[in-house]
Automatic annotation (TrEMBL):
Pfam families: Transposase_mut. It comes from Streptomyces colonosanans. GO terms for molecular function: DNA binding; transposase activity. Coiled coil: none annotated. It comes from the Bacteria. This is Mutator family transposase. Required for the transposition of the insertion element. Keywords: DNA recombination, DNA-binding, Transposable element, Transposition. One of its GO terms (biological process) is DNA transposition. PANTHER family: MUTATOR FAMILY TRANSPOSASE, TRANSPOSASE FOR INSERTION SEQUENCE ELEMENT IS1081.
Amino acid sequence: MPVSPNGLSSELLEELAALAAEKVRGEGLRLMGEGGLLPELAQHLMQAALEAEMDEHLAAEAGRSGGRGSRSGGNMRNGYRTKKVMTEVGAVTVQVPRDRLGTFRPRMLPAYARRTGALDDLVISLTAKGLTSGEIVSHLAQTYGMTTTKETISTITDKALESMAEWRTRPLDPVYPVVFIDAVHVKIRDGHVANRPIYVAVAVTADGYREILGLWAGNGGEGAKYWQTVLTEIKNRGVRDVLMLVCDGLSALPDAVSTVWPQTVVQTCVVHLIRASLRYASRRDWAEVARDLKPVYTAVNEDEARQRLADFDATWGKRYPSIAGTWQRAWSEFVPFLGLPDAVRQVVYTTNAIESLNARYRRAAQACGHFPNEQAALKRLYLATLALDPTGRGRQRWNNRWKSALNEFDVLFDGRLTAGRV
């Protein structure tokens, strides 16, 4: 007998199709929510499963006691209790069978359970995609006819905290060509609402993929001790070497990097320098300012870059005198970029994968307005990470020319990349 991937026979599927057709001809077909076909089907299936569980339980007890339902103390059925359960297709009311001895514990609906696991997964998925608790409550009411609360949604998403802890301590690769440190600022209510940075470490793997290494809450005044703790944590998860670490003007970070990975080159993020420059310019001039800055970071060496920055300042200095100063203050951390081969520059500069990640994080954070504590903020961004990749690693191909960059990295860094993978 042909069966579907879910184990349903073709005859049963045809019967369900006939039932749906009958409803269409009658009162109209509604799949989910109150009066829907799927909740009705779910109710029948759950009821049948509960009855089967009870039969199995009584048979097992009869075998142990030597007489099912005997007056000497054997167990037997003892009526039902009504239970309303929220499922992923709508609210379902079932009659949970009871036994006389009170030993029946249904696996399908454990005691005190008011939701199925699939519904919890749905709520977590909707949260990961950026919906707020209020929006999820509204969505469940409109689509599934469910009445729930923001507090219930928060309780469901708290289940992600355990998996988040595992994700933040999972083993990592022994060597990464590049690690980017970036920050998303969120509002956290800690006595009063204040902007707090949530730092994200994003790596390019030796296979040319983006991998999100972790998330850390900061307080805006991080020193070398803080960064050494973060980097040591990454190292303890198996990262023996990082060839380049790219960041945005985090003054205490270079010292911490030299302590944890002495050979790592610290590089100021070019995109962040451009972003910082545009803050001083009128929006109408952004395109031209960005165009005239490009010769600075595409120069073949430091001397040419200095000349191009001087040319830029001659053009824009009177209108925006702070832009050239921004580059000059970051010059010592920007210079290593100029010594990189073109293939490596593409990896270090091409930050579309980071920008798309930050955009998703910002949307997730802004949708909530502010968070009651840093754990709630971390949970929200972790769920946003799951939306990118169910494994939580946020894997995404970095660029299509990785092989040439891989060879350049290995030559530039004296074989440390391939040696570290052994």
